[in-house]
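Table S2 (text version). Query chain:
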Amino acid sequence: MSETPRQPRADDPAAGERVRPARALLLFAAALLTGGFAGLLGSVLRIVLARADVFRAEVTAWAHRSPAWGWVVPVVGVAALVGIARWLTRRWAPDAAGSGIPQVEGVVRENAPLGSRWINPVKFVGGVLGLGAGLALGREGPTVQMGAVAGQRVGRLFRVSAADVRRLVAAGSGAGLAAAFTAPLGGAVFVLEEILQRFELRSVVITLTACSASIGLTYQLLGTAPNFHVPPVLPPSFLHFAFYLGLGIPLGLLGAAYNWFVLRGLDFTGPFTGRRSDLVAAGIGALVGLVEWLLPDAVGGGDAIAQRLLDGPGTLSALLGLLVLRFLLGPLSYAARTPGGLFAPLLVVGGTIGALSGLAAHAVSPWLLPDPRALTLVGMAGFFAATVRAPITGIALALELTGVSTLFVPMLAASSVAAVVPTLLGNPPIYDSLRERARPQDEAPAGRTAAARPS
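Corresponding structure-token output:
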């Protein structure tokens, strides 16, 4: 007696590999449209944030002309903008708080709802207010979640299966990351390594299609140059690899500590709900505004800081001060629970650790140890691996952001150790921790949003 062939479920990774040509073309078109929306939103956000950074610098410079009272301008101004960003998030789309990556992972892995229909407007406007004001957060937070929302809505418009909607959500998040950093490979690897955590042909094709559409539009609006200009870096010799492996140890230890600070910051602000959370966010904004008054170049997402590190490491004291400041400022900014990501601040902290290590090593043995600029790049990738536990994504981002390909093997060496150290310490990846902390909030208006997540 013959058995009836098993029909794969719609959400089975093996399901849909053999698909009718018409459906395949429809899914391909949906992926292209998803990537196009993500690229447009991400590129426009980058343009607006670049102008906001210029405006913030001009206002701070103007305030410094009156030292007696000028400090009030950044303190009150940043507090007001961050408070408004928090109010918008709390009132209209609580799921837009934070990076959005835990929310996207919940949709893809657990079939959770993506949230309010207001997520994209709130993510965009709240991101411009908070990041433009100077919070040490990354622009990839808004772009990842906005791309995911685009994928969900396009999938429903095209009436694809529920499993393919989730694939489009994941692909849209990668397309958003690609637009944020002009990093199509980083966006695609991020989806497969962090969001889906599997390499399955159908998801790979959808993700690559969306990322290619996103980056094509981004190139048209922002150009094709890498985010950072890096002078040529010589490939390391064999003697250097032991040092790169060793660098992974402090990167791993500090990565675990950084995750702890992020979670403790949310522990502090989490109990404050309603208008009290707006006031707490405004208070955090006031602290960031004070830092902006004292050190105008130390706030914001950190692109300018990373470029200075890559141009030349500076002095040991300056690097140590920058490391301490950014190590605390990132978790503090994230605790405000406004739209903003962790990726960009992680790269800055990692680059600072690498530059500091390189400069210290050169002071001891300049003939034996690598170029400090090389360690800056390796530190970016290694610290990302330590906190997120997605080493290939971190390496891809570091390579695409700088256009430097001679340090791939050192990045592999440092990232492998940096990912192992916090794992041995029992420190989970930051987005796993944030996803587990997801819980309903009473402040979400009934019928307007899904359950809010403080991450």
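Notes on Table S2: Residues 238-436 form a domain with the Clc chloride channel fold (CATH 1.10.3080.10). The chain is about 70% helix and 0% strand.
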